[in-house]
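Example for tutorial group B:
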């Protein structure tokens, strides 16, 4: 059953749990804000729902709280950093902030980070840039979790990629390269829902939409999520993995630890672009409004409402701010028990 929780109560519970694990106040506050905001925007799979798993990676010593990232190389507007397996949301926030600093100086900035951990919702860092007036592209690799198109053994990470543009509201694309992220599958399994289309290869070797079965295959070590767009998603997952590993001098998906259920030691890239240098903010907003209006002209009859990327999350945020953040009751009980 879904219940409604105040944002402040979510942040308070997250800070309490992290403080008990001696996570510093600033780092705990960043994690609490991001986890609450992810659920506030309707991305519960990478918010409160994922928090018990997030805490488990700390308890297992897979993630190292309170460390600071280290710059290891610089090439003009491009820098390479080591995340030292610190808290993923904290490291990603700092890496995007540094990319924006480089962009403010040079027009564009790029931070390639190695030895990082799961950043929760990638869109967080696209919004971080967009709300500061920057366009952004960022992505991460991950441990192998899906086969290449035409294969049966896991060789690719789902390697989420994010695009963002400043606007009111910001334009935001945030997508994993599997048909569904693990969090979305977990969310459907908890709710007893089928996925709308097949999301993985099941125990019988055939594509399945049964979210609970997919979770069971993952628990059994059968990481066979289907790539989005099939061969196209397969190709994109491969090249993003290669670029992240090369730019950061970090691990590729095949080298990331597979004996755990966590993405640790992964590689990420954060690119920020100072679009105000090329187009004043008012002109940019007018341009984006024109494009969104044209998109919505595709609405016909009883077709589903046409939305530009990021618009749905903005609506969800406003609604949840008024009515409370939706949280699965079982998950909330688990958080309170941590």
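The residue assignment follows.
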């Amino acid at each position: 059953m879904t219940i409604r929780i105040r944002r402040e109560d979510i942040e308070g519970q997250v800070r309490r749990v992290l403080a008990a694990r001696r996570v510093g106040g600033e780092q705990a506050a960043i994690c609490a804000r991001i986890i609450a905001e992810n659920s506030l925007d309707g991305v519960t799979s990478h918010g409160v729902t994922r928090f018990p798993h997030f805490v488990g990676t700390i308890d297992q010593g897979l993630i190292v709280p309170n460390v600071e990232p280290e710059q290891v190389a610089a090439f003009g507007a491009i820098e390479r950093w080591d995340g030292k397996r610190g808290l993923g949301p904290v490291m990603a926030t700092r890496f995007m902030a540094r990319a924006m600093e480089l962009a403010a100086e040079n027009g564009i900035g790029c931070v390639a980070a190695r030895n990082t951990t799961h950043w929760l919702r990638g869109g967080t860092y696209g919004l971080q840039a967009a709300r500061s007036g920057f366009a952004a592209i960022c992505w991460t690799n991950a441990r192998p979790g899906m086969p290449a198109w035409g294969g049966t053994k896991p060789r690719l990470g789902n390697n989420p990629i994010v695009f963002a543009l400043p606007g009111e509201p910001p334009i935001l694309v945030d997508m994993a390269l599997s048909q569904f992220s693990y969090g979305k599958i977990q969310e459907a399994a908890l709710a007893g829902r089928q996925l709308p289309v097949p999301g993985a290869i099941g125990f019988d070797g055939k594509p399945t939409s049964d979210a609970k079965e997919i979770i069971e295959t993952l628990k059994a070590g059968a990481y066979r999520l289907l790539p989005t767009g099939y061969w196209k998603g397969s190709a994109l997952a491969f090249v993003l993995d290669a670029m992240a590993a090369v730019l950061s001098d970090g691990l590729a998906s095949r080298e990331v630890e597979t004996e755990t259920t966590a993405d640790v030691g992964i590689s990420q890239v954060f690119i920020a672009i100072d679009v105000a240098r090329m187009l004043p903010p008012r002109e940019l907003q007018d341009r984006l409004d024109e494009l969104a209006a044209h998109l919505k002209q595709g609405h016909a009859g009883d077709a589903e409402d046409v939305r530009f990327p990021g618009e749905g999350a903005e609506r969800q945020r406003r609604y949840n701010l008024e009515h409370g953040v939706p949280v699965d009751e079982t998950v909330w009980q688990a958080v309170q028990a941590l």
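The chain has a mean pLDDT of 92. Compare this with the pattern of hydrophobic and polar residues in the output above.
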